[in-house]
Structure formats: structure tokens, C-alpha cells
Amino acid sequence: MKSLLFFGCLISFLGVAQLCPAGTVETCAQYQSVTVGSYIVQTDYWNPGQCPGTQCLTVDDQTGAFSVTQATYSCGDNVAAYPDILFGCAFGNCSPQKSLPARLDGLKCVNSDWSFSPTNTGAWDAAYDIWVCPDNNCGPSGFNGGAEIMVWLDYRNSNGWQYDMGPVTLGGMAWEVWQFDGKSQNGQWKYVAYLAQTRTDSIRNLNLKAFLDDSQARGYVKPSWYLYAVEAGNEIHSGGIPFTSQNFSVSVNKDCGAKPVFTPLATFTPTATPDMTPGEIPPPP
Fold first, then answer.
1. Which of 222, 223, 239, 266 has the fewest Cβ atoms within 10 angstroms?
2. Side-by-side strand order, sheet with 55-60
3. Per residue in 146-203, pLDDT tens?
């Protein structure tokens, strides 16, 4: 597999990434987007005020694979950044696709593949971030009254908060469900997290509709609401670098009978005591 890092590239700190040889973009900008097909890779270093430092990414502009190569912040209980790849629309950034937004009651399946490689230091969660809006008019101002549903596939020293809603089995995997009334500068929404009890760094045919259906059954979302975005990335407090994301894809209402396939990690010792604050405060519009 070819390396994503080319040391001869110029690095931008001003929001404009330099196109590097072999289709690689390298940037240290706080907010930088790279469009790749139906997806957008985002640097999303949204909390430098509480978590000062430098974050750098390399992005393969042909495949959407990306690596977080540097992150000097160390942010304790706070999330510093969520470098990710986006399908759909979130906070004014929209990828070039036609499947979303889509009403929840019109969804048959939302299948996704994703694989990643974190570094087992610090505190972080490699997770999907799914955004749901009460209507078909969620713009740059955010998801007021909607919901943020996160699916944590692998994580370190981050194991929940205020309200433990117990276990559930979805897609052939066991999850622990946590709920939190998240707030941000752009409004308020319901926050729900599903933490994999058998961690994995590779998933195929994960039907994200199962998590939407479970959240609906718990009363967190309504069938008339709209799925707006699916993101996948690393919610970083500290450490975890280098982090590499690959093979991300989302398909809506296609191959709905596909069986989820995941590769369990060799060992897993969950954190015994909840000690982290959840939720992503998005960038200002």
C-alpha cells in the first residue's frame, strides 16, 4: 500500500491546502475540506480555544483515505477535533451526492464500510457521527431540536457519561447505549452513543439504519425526521496519532440484505469509570 505522506509537499496553515505529488493533499489548516467523489474529508479542528496546538492531515484525493500525522493538543475531558470524512450535509458543508437528506420512514437501509488504524495512546474514539434533523431545512446553523447519533467502533479511555441506557444487540454486535442532552453554541440536540463491546477497526455492510431505528424506539428521534449526514472519523482528546482512515463508503437503500462483517480486535479492556465529556461542538457557520 502506498504511503500517504510526501515530505516534499508544502503545508498550508491558512485554510488552503497544497496539492502534492501522487494525488496527496497535505494541510495543517484548522478547517480544510477535500472533496473526493461523493465525499468530503474534513480537518475539523473545531476546539483550539480550549485545546491549543497543531493538527496536520494528509488526504488521498483519489480514494478519500486520510491520515492524521500530527496533533500536539492534549485536552483532558474535552474533545479537541474530529478529523473525518463526510457523506451528506452537516453545518453548511455538503458532499456532492443525491441520497441525503432522506426521511427516516423512507429508509430501507443505510449500509457503510470503514476501516482505520489508530495509535493506542491518549484518549479518543473512532466513531461514526450521524446527524438527524426534525425537518428538511437544516442549514449552517445546525441541528436545533434534532439528534446526533454516534457509533463508537474503537475507543480508548472514553467510556460514557451521565445516562447508561444498558446493552443492545444491533447488526450482530453488542453495544452499550449512552444518552446525553448535548448543547453547543449553535443550539441543542439529543446526543446518543452506541459503544461497541467488542471493539473493531474494520467493518463492512454495517446497516446504520439499525441505530436510527433503535434511537426511534427509545424516543430520541421521530420517523418523520430526516437523515442529513453520516461522518466517520476520530474524536480526539489527546494521543491516538498517527491515525489513518480508509475504505469509507455509504449507500442508501442499496444491497439491504447484506450481512455485516467485522473484524474483532485481539484484546479489549473497557474503561471502568466514565470520565469523558461527549459531543462535538461544530464550527461556527
1. 266
2. 18-20, 24-27, 55-60, 66-71, 243-252, 110-117, 200-207, 261-264
3. 999 999 999 998 654 556 788 999 999 999 999 876 555 455 788 999 999 999 999 9
- Cβ atoms 251, 111 nearer than 8 A: yes
CA distances from 157 to 150, 172, 188, 245, 285 (A): 16, 25, 26, 20, 31
The structural domain count of the chain equals: 1
Residue 170 belongs to domain spanning: 18-264
CA distance to 30, 58, 120, 171, 269, per residue, from 266 (Å): 34, 28, 13, 20, 11
Indicate which CATH number applies to the domain containing 217. Answer: 2.60.120.180
C-alpha span between 233 and 215 (Å, rounded): 21
Please check whether residue 79 lies inside any domain of the structure: yes
The reply to whether omega before 274 is within 30° of 0 (cis) is: no
Residue 279 domain-assigned (yes or no)? no
